[in-house]
Amino acid sequence: MRLRFVGLPYLAVVLSLIPSLASAQAAGGGTQTSGTTSIPRTSDGKPDMSGIWQVLNRANDNILAHSASEGVPAGLGVVDGDEIPYRPEALQQKEENFANRETRDTEANCYLPGVPRVTYMPFPFQIIQLPEVSTFLYEYVHATRYVHTNGSEHPEGPINWWMGDSRGRWEGDTLVIDVVHFTDQTWFDRTGNFHSEALHVVERYSLLDADHINYEVTIEDPAVFTRPWTMRMNLYRRTEPNFQLLDYDCYAFEWEQYYPYPGL
Amino acid sequence: MRLHQTTMALGIGVALLSLPAALFGQGTVPEPPTAPWAPARTPDGQPDVQGVWRPVDGGTQSLERAMSSGEYFDELATGVRKDYPSRIIDSEDGHIPYQSWAAALQQELEAVYENPTRPEHIDTQTRCLGPGVPRLYYFPRFRILQPAGSVVFVWDQYHSFRVIPLDGRPHVSPRIKLWSGDGRGRWEGNTLVVDTTNLNAKSRLDVIGDFFSDQAHILERFIFIDGTTMHYEATITDPTVFTRPWTMQVVQRREPDEEFWEYACHEGEHDAARTSSQFIDSDVGDR
Q: Which residues contact A190 (CB under 8 A, 6 or more apart)?
């Protein structure tokens, strides 16, 4: 069993979020508010997305709408139009991926999951927002991303990074992150939806209120898709008191029994 | 706020300056002033120590002989064994105060780390497992971020990170064990004091098999001498393994700020898994 299902923890997260979402709405939240949009803002007036966030969807199982199957809850899908515009020759690769998903999926191997998948893995992540750079810290394999918002450009390629190179800018109250320089090894979900090294990702983070982010991500990869396509979903703030990131170092699980020494 | 603190620092400095003159009378040359470093402040009032830091003598080969990996390979190549200082500042003899069974186990691991015959003989670092606390602090290099209410460390290697809350919240349940433990911090002047528990202690302290147990409690002190020098001190209390608490020190220097680029280890790592497959029944050769 190479896939690491996390169904039960996910359910616990859903249950624990329900009361806190209600109380958070009642309490408001955030450090500064302006006008009618009650979103927190930093001292330089930007929307303040600092905090710990998590999706509540099944996109990591399958980004398209799907019925339930054993170990996989049903999902409404997160892709606009519920269709991924594969080139005809790429569809065959997708089917091969699905058939071999228990060994080929980056998640099955506990590799860094790439962008945007890391956003909708069923684990919390923390945004450390500072003016020049926002640092994204993910519980899943403690992946990290630096989102540079100092006007700098992508470094010159070719570069193959599992998490790509992220450069951000503000368009009004939306943080827009341009991500390039990927490997062709990461997938979009457990069903084998894939991309090439030419992947170009544009993420858009917009605070809806203090505790919700509207997340939209556009996928462009002419080698695999006939046109750009878009996913959208909500990110929910983890508002439980003293909530914090823990560990999910899945690549270590098979070795932990040996350290610091067996039986110690 | 900042003005007030600057004035305070100046006042202390003046007091220090005038003290020798008062003691020894006119005509004595006073010692140079040693006013405490007056750091800039973050918006929430922390000493601002953000930026990139690196251990002066980085390297995780040995705690008792603090050598870099380059110096270690020199030693291997030449066969000449030089003296290197111990990172251990307490005990006085520079040795880790192991209980006798633990000393024997460490010596056994040290004897075989170059020629392993069992999975546990291979250093966790070779397997790309997280170095954890305190080992991360003699790895190059890390960035300190200070969002309101916490201190965040992000390393260049192993994409390791730690978030240290400063709000006095309790530790997580003792049922939870973490690769870098659960740190709770507070500022005492220019020293960040971090109380670290919930350690899984899976990562060794160094390549040669120095170790502790998941019963360990680490008190870390990040002593910022000035804007460019910090002394990292970790006192490890672990009655399961040691005869008494002991303390290591690693001097860190600030480096010019530059971007950290991706470091993927497990993703491209095959050697350790294949080597291990010789020693265990389960097939890991496909990793």
A: A3, A60, A61, A62, A101, A105, A107
| Residues of chain B contacting A43 with CB distance shorter than 8 Å | 43
Q: Residue window 49-78, chain A: list those with CB within 8 Å of chain B.
A: 50
Tell me the domain boundaries of chain B. 51-58+88-257
Distance from B14 to chain A by nearest Cα, in Å? 35
Chain A residues close to B126, C-beta within 8 Å: none
Opening angle at CA B179, ends A56 and B136, nearest 5: 120
**A132-170 burial by CB neighbour count: b if 16+ within 10 A, else e?**
ebbbbbbbbbbbbbbbbbeeeeeeeeebebbbbbbbbee
Where does B79-202 have alpha helices with state H?
A: 100-112
Instruction: Tell me, yes or no, if A244 comes closer than 8 A to chain B by beta carbon.
Output: yes
Of A163, A246, A252, the CB nearest to B262: A163
Q: Determine contact, residues B21/B30, Cβ cutoff 8 Å.
A: yes
Question: What are chain A's domains?
Answer: 7-258 (2.40.128.20)
Q: Does A160 touch chain B (CB under 8 A)?
A: no
B129/A251 CB distance under 8 A: yes
Tokens of B259: 């971007």
State which CATH number among 3.40.50, 2.40.300, 1.10.3470, 2.40.128 fits the domain covering B51-58+88-257.
2.40.128
Q: Any chain B CB within 8 A of the CB of A243?
A: no
Cβ neighbours of residue A130 under 8 Å, at least 6 residues apart? Answer: B145, B147
**A 202-231 near B (Cβ less than 8 A):** none
Q: For the beta carbon of residue B68, count every other beta carbon within 10 angstroms.
A: 17
User: What is the structure's pLDDT at A29?
Assistant: 37
- Can the peptide bond before residue A260 be classed as cis, meaning omega within 30 degrees of 0? yes
Calculate the CA dihedral of residues B157, A254, B119, B111 and round it to 10 degrees.
40
Chain A nearest-CA distance from B54, in A, is 19
| Residue B150 contacts residue A135 (beta carbons within 8 Å) | no
* pLDDT range class, residue B273, cuts 50, 70, 90: low
pTM above 0.90, yes or no: no
Cα angle, residue B170 at apex, residues B166 and B171 outer, rounded to 5°: 100
pLDDT digits (tens, 9 = 90+) for A175-186: 999 999 999 999
Query: Could A255 and B286 be called an inter-chain contact, meaning their C-beta atoms sit closer than 8 Å?
Result: no
Which residues in chain A touch residue B203, judged by CB atoms under 8 angstroms apart?
259-260
